From TrEMBL:
TM annotation in the entry: 27-49, 69-93, 105-125, 155-177, 214-236, 256-275, 303-330, 350-371, 391-409, 421-442, 481-499, 535-554
Topological category with respect to the lipid bilayer: Multi-pass membrane protein
Protein name: Iron ABC transporter permease
Annotated ABC transmembrane type-1 domain residues: 70-274, 347-553
Subcellular location: Cell membrane
Keyword Membrane in annotation: yes
GO CC annotation terms, alphabetical: plasma membrane
InterPro entries to which the protein is assigned, alphabetical: MetI-like, MetI-like_sf
Keywords: Cell membrane, Membrane, Transmembrane, Transmembrane helix, Transport
GO biological process: transmembrane transport
Classification via Pfam families: BPD_transp_1 (PF00528)
Organism the protein comes from: Antarcticimicrobium luteum
UniProt KW Transport keyword: yes
PANTHER family: IRON UTILIZATION PROTEIN, MOLYBDENUM TRANSPORT SYSTEM PERMEASE PROTEIN MODB
Lineage: Bacteria, Pseudomonadati, Pseudomonadota, Alphaproteobacteria, Rhodobacterales
Length: 561
């Protein structure tokens, strides 16, 4: 007797397998719920710690640093939003809707700055543009000017930090805007042209509004990465919420202040996350007409072609080519040896953390994603939504949110063991790498879940029904059918999380066990000590690893049709 399965998540299996099916489903539901709870824990812990920290700290923050933190963060967000919008949308329109010499190469190369963490870019440009740097030293040698005889833009400033972040984050807007422009039909644009509108007016009134949801999503992603950034603003001395959390936690040893600053940043981040999701699902545009006609690209020649090439090549030059050359030359002049025992330790620690976090995060993503497919409904949808919240929470907030409850647990356990057995357990949880791995899982689960769900959508529900009619349990279906088919998506998710962990700085800086340093920590420490040439070596390794997912993205971008 054959069995069937419907698409509502109700399983039909032979009688003998009902017990195994129920057990597997409960196990999957429990694991998915535990993952969602782990993602929610840092936010709840931050809120509780902040609200129970007393009003004295709040009043002190309001009277001293909080207005400055809020103002600097807001200005930085506005500058990055405007900069990523201008570069990302402009470059996407030029490479999609026009043709000029070098456009196919630039179409791919515009993604390359994603390989750089913003703080690495900051180290390179400080070496180039700071007062003792190459540019100003050459200028003084040529003109004979003294330090106070001329004005030069200060790279270590709020504006300098904004430029670094724009150069690294504009590809978010570029990729989404390019995809939106490619999907647009030419009907509405050509209709606007026949009504007497210029190409620029038609773009502004027709093409840009149609791509607005995608562009807004890209800008909001860039903004969320901006408020989460710590390395760039800390190195440039810009006082934002991210630097305030670190200063309160370590320099001032004020846990209440750190929690309250983290709560402010968390509220702003969640507001942006809600805006991003509502924008993604808000405006929807449909093609006029029965057939989708691609926009015919305009052929540019002469001055127009040269100008288009220069506009698209400039962000690639400033965001990838020039920093790579600078870091390479800095690395040659340093005394850092990647093959030394010390550096192999940094590399081993980085790879261990990144590899472990990637496996744990992918496992959590599979549990949440497959549970949502197996039991579609309000509970699984809520679980998936909670699991995705971490992408909007800065690493520093997650670090504080996990350290507060687990440090209390460690202290309570140690006190009980001392009183009962006269044994000290020490920092059992907070002194290990596992809490740091949990922070990475919370922070990057959304990326892994997105890659997994993208692949899972290609597996038809009829395959699940066929497997269950043959007596396969849900976990057996996952192991024997889904995972082999989804191998490319799983590898992509592993790679994305691996590289993100390699580049992550604030959570690693706050939560790492004593004397457990990574390449990112080494680069930050050397740069903080003004040993920029030494910082170039670990920075280059981080950039080289970051190129791996960017190459995958470039391959997809290259498949234009």
């Amino acid at each position: 007797m054959s069995q069937t399965s419907d698409t509502t998540g109700i399983d039909y299996a032979p009688h003998g397998s009902h017990r195994h099916t129920a057990r597997g489903t409960r196990l999957l539901a429990g694991l998915a719920t535990a993952v969602a709870a782990a993602c929610l824990l840092p936010m709840v812990a931050v809120a509780i710690a902040a609200l129970t920290g007393g009003t004295d700290t709040v009043r002190h923050l309001l009277a001293t640093v909080l207005p400055g933190y809020a103002g600097a963060t807001l200005v930085l967000v506005v500058l990055v939003a405007l900069g990523t919008f201008a570069i990302g949308v402009g470059a996407a329109w030029l490479v999609t809707m026009t043709r000029f010499p070098g456009v196919r190469l630039l179409e791919i190369a515009l993604v390359l700055p994603l390989a750089f963490p913003a703080y690495v870019l900051a180290y390179a440009y400080t070496h180039l543009l700071d007062h003792p740097g190459i540019v100003q030293s050459t200028l003084r040698d040529i003109t004979g000017w003294g330090p106070r005889d001329y004005w030069f833009p200060e790279i270590r400033s709020l504006g300098g930090a904004a430029v670094m972040l724009v150069l690294v984050f504009y590809p978010y807007v570029y990729l989404l805007a390019r995809a939106a422009f490619l999907q647009q039909s030419s009907g509405a644009f050509l209709a606007a042209r026949t009504l007497g509108n210029s190409a620029w007016t038609a773009f502004w009134r027709v093409s840009l509004p149609m791509a607005r949801p995608a562009i807004a999503g890209g800008v909001l992603l860039a903004v969320m990465e901006t408020i989460a950034d710590f390395g760039t603003v800390a190195y440039f001395g810009v006082q934002t919420f991210a630097t305030g959390i670190y200063t309160s936690w370590f320099t001032m040893a004020d846990r209440a202040a750190a929690a309250q600053l983290a709560l402010c940043l968390l509220g702003f981040a969640l507001m942006l996350a809600v805006a991003e999701r509502s924008t993604r699902g808000a405006a929807q545009y449909h093609h006029a007409g029965k057939r989708h006609m691609k926009m015919p690209p305009a052929q540019l020649k002469g001055v127009q072609a040269a100008l288009a090439f220069a506009l698209c090549a400039t962000p690639v030059l400033l965001g990838f080519v020039l920093p790579t050359v600078i870091l390479f030359l800095m690395g040659l002049g340093s005394e850092q040896d990647l093959l030394s025992r010390r550096y192999t330790g940094f590399i081993r620690n980085s790879v261990t953390l990144a590899g472990t976090a990637a496996v744990v995060t992918l496992t959590a993503a599979i549990a949440v994603g497959f549970y949502q497919r197996l039991r579609p409904g309000r509970r699984s949808a809520t679980t998936a939504y909670m699991a995705r919240l971490g992408y909007a929470v800065p690493g520093g907030v997650i670090a504080v949110g996990l350290l507060v409850p687990f440090a209390a647990f460690d202290n309570a356990l140690d006190a009980w063991m001392r009183d009962t057995f006269d044994i000290s357990t020490g920092l059992l949880v907070t002194g290990s790498i596992w809490l740091l791995v949990a922070a990475y899982m919370v922070r990057f689960l959304a990326a892994a879940l997105g890659a997994y769900e993208g692949g899972q959508s290609t597996v038809h529900v009829h395959m699940d029904a066929a497997a269950r009619s043959l007596g396969e349990t849900p976990l057996g279906t996952l192991r024997r059918i889904h995972l082999p088919i989804l191998t490319p998506s799983l590898l992509t998710a592993l790679l994305i999380v691996f590289v993100d962990v390699m580049k992550e700085l604030p959570a690693t800086l706050i939560m790492r066990p004593f004397n457990y340093d990574t390449l990112a920590i080494q680069a930050y420490r050397l740069a903080s000590d003004e040993r920029l040439e030494g910082a170039a070596v670990p920075s280059l390794v981080i950039m080289a690893v970051g190129l791996l997912p960017v190459i995958l993205i470039c391959r997809q971008v290259g498949r234009r049709d």
